[in-house]
Amino acid sequence: MSKQEVLPGLHTVSAVLKLQPERVQTVWIEQHKNNMRTDECLTHARRLGISVQTIQRAKLDLLCEGTQHQGIAASCSATHLLEEQDILNLVNNSTPPLVLILDEISDPHNLGACLRTADAAGVDAVILPQRHSAPLTPTVHKIASGASLTIKIHRTANLARCIDRIKKAGIWVYGAEGQAEHLIYQANLTVASAVVMGAEGQGLRRLTREKCDQLCALPMLGQVESLNVSVATGLFLYEAVRQRQH
Question: 133 and 67 share a domain?
Fold first, then answer.
């Protein structure tokens, strides 16, 4: 894993300065890009003793890997990842945990959107496979709009084994499957639960699907056969929110 991550965009930089300033090594500002909003952010960084450097647009574009950055970005230490035991310990919480498992979501825009939705829905942790899953790129951080800083993430080398272990710990696992017999509205998401979402196109891998306690679908009443994975993730997670508030 890289020892450094680049967080682009005014909102993301402001968020990391507020929530995790100890991670920030340098804040870059594009030459001639200063305005009232960026000036406030830079003043905050300087008060924290963080280096602020002016940089040319072309170099900032390169550092941000082409992601829109609004003329500002931060160089940060790598995101702290949870250990598997941290996930298992969630069952000891006073409220039943809600976990999101993303099975090989390789598109950084989708991953960022899923993280943002997970944060909004109060998800306790997100589990990602180490392979064939988008890394925490500048695009992921930008699309997540600060959620990549607040959501707890665990990367596992063996997703099927990880699912077995969280099931043994008492977490009920629901997989999203377009052709499933049951709708997500019929699932009991008030208990300790994990929602598993597959990649667009292929959906859940066979072994991942077989490890789920129950497969659930969303009603599709029009002509399209499926939804974008980040949209479907939001619908699944907010059904859990709805059930837990009633």
Answer: no
Distance CA 244, CA 246 (A): 6
Kindly report, residue by residue over 167-188, the tens digit of the pLDDT. 999 999 999 998 889 999 999 9
SS3 114: helix
pTM of the shown model: 0.91
115 in Cβ contact with 126 (< 8 Å):
yes
One domain, residues 97 and 197: yes
Residues 125 and 197 in one domain: yes
The bridge status of strand 125-129 relative to strand 98-103 is: parallel
Q: At which residue do the structure tokens 């976990």 appear?
A: 99
Torsion over CA: 142, 155, 216, 203 (sign): positive
Give, in order, the Cα–Cα distances in Å from 222 to each of 22, 176, 218. 49, 19, 12
Other CB atoms within a 10 A radius of the CB of residue 41 amount to 20
